[in-house]
Design brief:
Belongs to the SbcD family. InterPro entries: Calcineurin-like_PHP (IPR004843), DNA_Repair-Maintenance_Comp (IPR050535), Metallo-depent_PP-like (IPR029052), Mre11_N (IPR041796), SbcD (IPR004593), SbcD_C (IPR026843). Keywords: DNA recombination, DNA replication, Endonuclease, Exonuclease, Hydrolase, Nuclease. With about 375 residues, this protein is an alpha/beta fold. It has helices spanning about 20-35, 55-75, 85-90, 95-100, 135-140, 150-165, 275-280, 305-315, 335-340, 345-355, 365-385; strands spanning about 1-5, 15, 20, 40-45, 75-80, 100-105, 115-120, 120-130, 170-175, 180, 200, 210-215, 220, 225-230, 245-250, 255-265, 270-275, 295-300, 320-325. The chain folds into three domains: about 1-265, Metallo-dependent phosphatases (Purple Acid Phosphatase, chain A, domain 2, 4-Layer Sandwich), CATH 3.60.21.10; about 270-325, Double Stranded RNA Binding Domain, CATH 3.30.160; about 330-385, no CATH class. The longest helix has 24 residues, at about 365-385. It is elongated, with a radius of gyration of 28 Å.
Length: about 375
């Protein structure tokens, strides 16, 4: 059986205030084309369909379009809710939609009830485990101390119990939305830490042939049978090095797994540039990045004038500007109190300006600071006399 594993669509999300709706629509086109061209038998979507619980109308319309097009192909789709989704909203009409071959799994109580498909080698049971928020599902799974490992382990116990009742040779697939130990995170995933522990061991999925994971945005294989598809688009500059793709998984007659990556369309490459402004503007080696979305980190000791305007002349798609000025190393072992000892309020203020900006105040700015301190001292003196 050939499976197409994807996740983390985050429909409705922007990239540094730039709408990604057209890029997300292009991904849906690519998904449908991949299903058709590669003879996919089932599509797996492992959560975070939307970017937020109440998505914008345009994102809902795109999701509706995706469902209709997948249903028209006659290829079953199994989809779970992620931590960004509203499980209740995403699951509305799941029973009716299921009749069209789109199986939404958003209710934790249904973890042990699979979608069963058949191929020439027999049945394949696909179990959808929606994102399990420990505090909300601990009673459903009867765990005493809510935690990700406890509730996911209990859900997998239900999967294994159901699988034990199936005909011998039944192959199994689990969709889950979780942070599994060994996975590489990026800046764009929402923190799901509970009690200081967010990760669960990959061994929690022992006993099934393939675990199709969602949540982490980088495509990665934790084991041959436990994989993240990653998000189809980059949602932070920390993903500049990602290769965005889906997993095309062939599940053999005895549960053998063979997987290959299918690249997703890239609306615009990402570039993270670092250096002094003049160097970034003049360096010929940076020419390939003129069409990229750019995050520029400026290391100038003094903040340059109009840096964004000057950057966008060469890199018109600069979206993020960060300042990290080069500084002389501070003397080690010297306490803050010792550094301030014997210094006037004026000197301390001037040092602070130099620390924040990279250069001390000019004559006019020193005069402004002096006037401010004189005014404060005069006000304090008036208050003292009035007592």
């Amino acid at each position: 059986m050939r499976l197409l594993h994807t996740s983390d669509w985050h429909l409705g999300r922007a990239f540094h205030r730039v709408s990604l709706l057209d890029a997300q629509a292009a991904f849906v086109d690519h998904l449908v084309a991949t299903v058709r061209e590669h003879g996919v038998d089932a599509v797996l979507v492992s959560g975070d369909v939307y970017d937020r619980a109440v998505p914008p109308l345009a994102a809902v319309e795109l999701f509706d379009d995706a469902l209709h097009r997948l249903a028209d192909l006659g290829v079953p789709t199994v989809m779970i809710s992620g931590n960004h989704d509203s499980a209740r909203r995403l699951g509305v009409g799941a029973g009716l939609i299921g009749r069209a071959g789109i199986h939404l799994r958003t209710d934790p109580a249904g973890c042990g009830t699979p979608v069963v498909l058949e191929d020439a080698h027999g049945p394949v049971a696909l179990y959808g485990l929606p994102y399990l928020e420990p505090a909300l599902v601990k009673d459903e799974f009867g765990v005493e101390k809510p935690g990700h490992e406890a509730v996911l382990g209990a859900a997998m116990d239900r999967v294994r119990a159901d699988l034990a009742t199936r005909p011998r040779g039944t192959r199994s697939v689990v969709l889950a939305h979780a942070f599994v130990t060994g996975g590489q995170a990026s800046d764009s995933e929402r923190d799901i830490t509970v009690g200081g522990v967010a990760a669960v061991p990959a061994a929690v999925f022992d006993g099934v042939d393939y675990a199709a994971l969602g949540h982490l945005h980088g495509s990665q294989a934790l084991t041959e049978r436990v994989r993240y598809s990653g998000s189809p688009l980059a949602y932070s500059f920390s993903e500049a090095g990602h290769r965005k793709s889906m997993w095309l998984v062939d599940l053999g007659p005895r549960g053998e797994v063979r997987a290959e990556r299918v690249d997703c369309p890239v609306p615009r490459p990402l570039a993270r540039l670092r250096g002094r402004l003049e160097d970034l503007l003049a360096d010929p080696a940076l020419e390939p990045h003129t069409g990229a979305w750019v995050e520029a980190t400026l290391t100038d000791p003094v903040r340059p004038a109009e840096p964004m305007a000057r950057l966008t002349e060469r890199f018109p798609h600069t979206l993020s500007l960060v300042f990290d000025p080069e500084r002389a190393p501070e003397e080690p072992g010297v306490s803050y109190a010792r550094r301030l000892a014997g210094r006037s309020d004026q000197q301390i203020a001037e040092d602070f300006v130099a620390h924040v900006r990279g250069a001390g105040p000019d004559a006019h700015e020193r005069a402004v600071l002096r006037e401010a301190f004189d005014a404060v001292r005069a006000d304090a003196a008036v208050r003292e006399v009035a007592r």
